[in-house]
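Sat 14:20. Reprocessing the chain from the morning session after the first attempt stalled halfway. Input below, unchanged.
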Amino acid sequence: MLRKQITDNYSVSEQISLDDVDALAESGVTLIICNRPDGEEEGQLPFADVAAYAKEKNIKAEHIPFAGGQMTTADVIAFQAAIKDADNIHAYCRTGNRSSQIWQAAQEASPADPSTQDNKASSATADKAQPKEDNKTTTQYDVVVVGAGSAGISTAASLLKRKPGLKICLIDPAESHFYQPGWTLVGGGVFKAANTRRNMADVIPAHTKWLKEAVKTFLPNENKVVLENGQKIAYQYLVVAAGIKLNWDAIEGLSETLGRNGVTSNYRYDLAPYTWDLVKNLNGGKAVFTQPPMPIKCAGAPQKAMYLSCDHWLKNDKLKDINVSFYNAGAVLFGVADYVPALESYIQKYQVNTHFTHNLVKVDGPNKRAYFATTDKDGEKSIVETEFDMLHVCPPQTAPDFIRNSPLVDAAGWVDVDKETLQHTQFKNIWSLGDVSNTPNAKTMAAARKQAPVVAQNIADAIDGNTIRAIYDGYGSCPLTVERGKIVLAEFGYGGKLLPTFPTWLNDGTKPTYLAWVLKEDLLPPFYWHGMLKGYEWFVKPTMRK
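Finished this time. Tokens:
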């Protein structure tokens, strides 16, 4: 980091790393400001990661992003508010220029005055910079959706297709929305990471209110959601689609070494490109791929990373010099037996060493050692150590903390719903879908695609006073990329029942096919952005209970 001191208590630089945050903390910085939008360039460290790490160092972090040459009055006023009580500030962008310019503009501008600023800028920044006196009062909506991921946005869009006049509020603090199934292909050198990201504001359905806030808790007996800022949002119907928490810190030493020392994961936007860098540059040694205990989202993703890596090494005549191991906390390769033979054939083709009931518990990045807890056939527990040159980790996963500590969950911490109607078992005006619910299906984007119309139809029927009849059959899809150009398209529902979209003569999902590859690489991304998120229910019209 090349740090430029503008004043005694304000410095700027180019994009910082987590190591730079350590250096800033040691120098006494108390506030970090990021002036660049997330995803501005490939491999850019997201602001959320900087903010989370800064918090551990007792440093505040503010995101005031704008593109080069597009600084607004709103940005300047927000910047003034952010630095008002800070005593040692560091700001960064791509080169440091924007952070210098906004500092200069803030010094030249008078404090925000609605009479001298354009209405739009004043309104936006007043909300951002100053808590309102009435921020604890209640705002009422027909439907409140917690979580603006795949499940939340598609449900809101499907509801509006049925009832365009609904007053809907989406609550989510994220600035970016990601097509996460694409990260496997980023890690395999097929996609660019930036193509999997959109600004959240660009994907929120029209005529829907987006509250860029975090939820603190729920008051289901009062039909209210409480935000972290103290505001209460009232609803007639509530949809909980808060996603899943990737618990990196559950593995000792992992967070400190992610993105360096050969340790990576396709489960994070900023790390998937590092996976591809490691794969391209590994000429020999040991590659280790891990899978934690269930449930996790996209249970096939840890294997997908391994198969695509092996395919590259094989085609570049490197695999003979690379020892590949797969450590799985579970007891089987894949949970639906019909797909195992095809996967086993690739395990043999790539000469992968499989280790079942081995759960990753510790990573020593600098010394390139991974440690797994296992139990032998006699019930004896032990820790197994292995070295690595490349380590691809899938982290253990739980429901988000504010969900697990809420009154909406079952004993395991997931939102407790009927597995067919997706209606809460206790609170009948609450529904939940996606990764956060306790439905016993595979946690995939395809599952959310099938669940969203069910929730939308049932809420629409409830609003009209009709009996809810739409049911979800447990459908989930896992396109297992076994090599570049071929995919085993696993599609199944509750109980492992096969639920193929296409007839066997067109695509046999139990075997690797090129058609499934075309579907994943070329068709599904636009289908997602322009179909699912817009409320188009192609191939997923809800089944109605008779």
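The chain has three domains: 4-129, 138-244+399-544, 248-395.
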